[in-house]
Amino acid sequence: MRINKKAQAGTMQSSDLIVFVEPADDLTIEIESTVQQQFGHLIETRIKQVLKRLSVEQCRIMISDRGALDYAIDARVEAALRRAN
Amino acid sequence: MSKNSLGREIPDIWRGRVLRPYRDPFSVQPEGPRVARPIRRVNPGDNKLLGSLREAIEASGLRDGMTIGAHHHLRNGDQVLNSVVKEIAAMGIRDIGIASSSIHPVHEVLIPFIRDGVITRIESGVNGRISRMVSTGQLDVPIVTRTHGGRGRAMMCGDIKVDVAFVGAPTCDEYGNICASKGPSACGVVGYSHSDADYADCVIAVTDNLVPYPAFPISIPQTKVDYVVQVDSLGDPSKIVSTTTRVTTDPIGLQIAKYAATVIDLSGLLKTGFSFQTGAGGASLATAANVRDLMRKRGIVGSFGAGGITGYFVDMLEEGLLEALFDVQSFDLKAVASVGRNPAHIEMSADMYANPFNAGCVVNRLDCVVLGAREIDTNFNVNVNTESDGTLNGNTGGHADTAAGAKLAIVVAPSIRARLPIVRDEVTTISTPGETIDAIVTERGVALNSKYQALAPDLRRRGIPVKSIVELRDEIYGITGAPRPIEFTDNIVGLVEYRDGTITDVIRQVKG
Q1: Which end of chain A is more exposed for a tag (fewer CB within 10 A), N or C?
Q2: How many CB atoms lie within 10 A of CB A18?
Q3: For residue B415, which residues of chain A lie inside 8 Å, CB to CB?
Q4: Which long-range contacts (CB under 8 A, 24 or more apart) does B33-40 make?
Q5: CA angle at residue A52 from A49 to A58, to 5 degrees?
Q6: If we measure between CA atoms, which residue out of B391, B385, B373, B389 comes closest to residue B130?
Q7: Residue B388 in this model has a pLDDT that exceeds 90
Q8: Which residue does chain B place closest to A42, by CA atoms?
Q9: What ipTM describes this predicted complex?
Q10: How many of the other CB atoms lie within 10 Å of CB of B120?
């Protein structure tokens, strides 16, 4: 999937996350989270899984997480990517 | 360094103080007499009303190195402590300890005075910016958190020596009778201040509602108050008490409350004479609502409700479902209004509430207490002092006191808060030992500690999932993932003192 434009998905509410996506020449992931220390590694793994599943290889993805569970991360990241397509 | 019975490393000495590691809830035996304060004589015609805070501080003899007493009934609306410290600093006095019952976010204006060495010790749990800065190494002031009963005990035993106590008096007369239930800053009762009034060398009542003698009903009598000072305002009344405390509408909270009420129902304690305490959190109050309905339906009249009193308990009193209320701190306007109106709504000192070293405290008479938790470990130990990022943010309050005293201590909590598993391998800080906790109730089910294991079949028959605490943890980790532990430095910034003065845990500076 190609990222052609800027897009976002999600909210800043507790247990949710907001995802920003924009076109880029390479792949960068930036994570800011209220549970960074405890779960930063799992959040990153999850985002990478979604990128791989949708075959996204070039984009800049920024997330601001408020303690979302994995299924919410999946849904928000996918929504942002599809909107940017 | 040695391990206490909860497995926590406790240094032998911290900042000059010899520490006793926690061993168990009930075996520490006190020795000797309680501390005394100087006798004084006030003759007819002597004047106790002074013109300003400064005059009162001068009259008290406060000097470098001493400790002041304060209290948190005015909660996040309090300006008394801030005004007192500003005046102390302006007078050039330094190296002062604050022995409050709690420090709130409103007290963050004290930060410059901590930096400048005016305030050098905090003998109290702390909420807000001060505690975050101390936890992250940006501010250096030793913090000792105590339970409400433990604070009373520490003053009685001389562990805390308060030289000058400042009591915010919502109503007061010129001779020092303090009435907490009237006036623009009415907070109902001043239960935590009674120990200050009993043990401080000098007691100063600070009031914004000076009335002709005598002020009544009397919370703290003239015989214990040395000076009276009038100020414009004790603080912001809108932040002193909540307008209302509400039962939760959150479906998870309601589910938890239903489970918790069923545990109480099946415990055999819910009968005539039932005594009960809950926190003011939504799920705790929802549990109280369920229990009230059961009492109504079966015509049960309970003996007393205790603790921080909410309008919810006032309703139960006025409806005839409880015979009396013991109130150490009024949480909302309805509770404040009830103190003056209901003779059975009784002001209670923290000593009477929960001090383990007197001739018997109220928590010993509790059938059931419903408590909250930030974290719970698989040994039922509870954390209410630190956040999951490791920073201190809170006071133990009556948590450990009531858990020790009550026949049935229930902790209610959602299983997950913003991805953080509430039941986990290890809690960040042990505030309340697991051996005093009887049941953990989450929306995913109930975990029973050893004393109440026999309730499991009955609970299951009522359709309530009963799980071992390890099963509960595994189920929650399955959803959140296992959290990586927070990293700490070796620097100990605070102590978590149990009600008997032993140490359940230390608070370390967070790394990074």
Answers
A1: C
A2: 19
A3: none
A4: B34/B156, B34/B157, B34/B158, B35/B155, B35/B156, B35/B157, B35/B158, B35/B161, B35/B199, B37/B198, B37/B199, B37/B200, B37/B201, B38/B201, B40/B226
A5: 120
A6: B391
A7: no
A8: B481
A9: 0.93
A10: 17
Same domain, B327 and B207: no
Token pair listed for B130? 């001060």
Taking only residues 19 to 48 of chain A, the set having a beta carbon closer than 8 angstroms to any beta carbon of chain B reads: 34-35, 37-39, 41-42
| B412-455 confidence digits (pLDDT tens) | 999 999 999 999 999 999 999 999 999 999 999 999 999 999 99
Q: What percent of chain B has pLDDT over 70?
A: 99
Cβ pair A69:B419 closer than 8 A: yes
Mean pLDDT of B354-372: 97
Encode pLDDT of B151-177 as tens digits: 999 999 999 999 999 999 999 999 999
Inspect the interface and report whether the beta carbons of B419 and A14 lie closer than 8 Å.
no
**Phi and psi, residue B152, nearest 5°:** -60, -45
Cβ–Cβ below 8 Å for A39 and B479: no
CA-based nearest residue to B228, from B168, B309, B304, B307: B168
Does residue B151 belong to any structural domain of this protein? no
Residue B172 lies in a domain: yes
Asked if residue B371 has pLDDT above 70, the reply is yes
B342 and B221 assigned to the same domain:
no
> pLDDT digits over A24-38, tens only?
999 999 999 999 999
> Which of B417, B420, B481 has its CB closest to that of A42?
B481
Over residues B459-485, the mean pLDDT reads 97
**Segments making up each domain of chain A, as ranges:** 7-84
Instruction: Give contacts of B 484-503 with A, CB under 8 A.
Output: 484-487
| Residue in A68, A31, A36, A16 with CA at minimum distance from that of residue B510 | A36
Are B377 and B447 part of one and the same domain? yes
8 Å CB contact of B417 and A38: no
CATH of domain A7-84: 3.30.230.10
Which chain A residues are within 8 Å of B416, Cβ to Cβ? 69
> B418 and A42 in contact by Cβ < 8 A?
no
Q: Does A67 touch chain B (CB under 8 A)?
A: yes
> Which chain B residues are within 8 Å of A71, Cβ to Cβ?
none
Per-residue pLDDT reduced to its tens digit, B195-205: 999 999 999 99
The residue type of A68 is: A
Q: How confident is the model at residue A46 (pLDDT cuts 50, 70, 90)?
A: very high
Q: Which domain holds residue B233?
A: 47-123+160-240
Half-sphere exposure of B390 (CA within 13 A, CB side): 24
Residue B236 has pLDDT above 90, yes or no: no
User: How far does B241 lie from chain A, in Å, by closest CA?
Assistant: 26
Q: How far apart are the first and last CA of chain B?
A: 24
Give the pLDDT confidence score for residue B243 in this predicted structure: 66
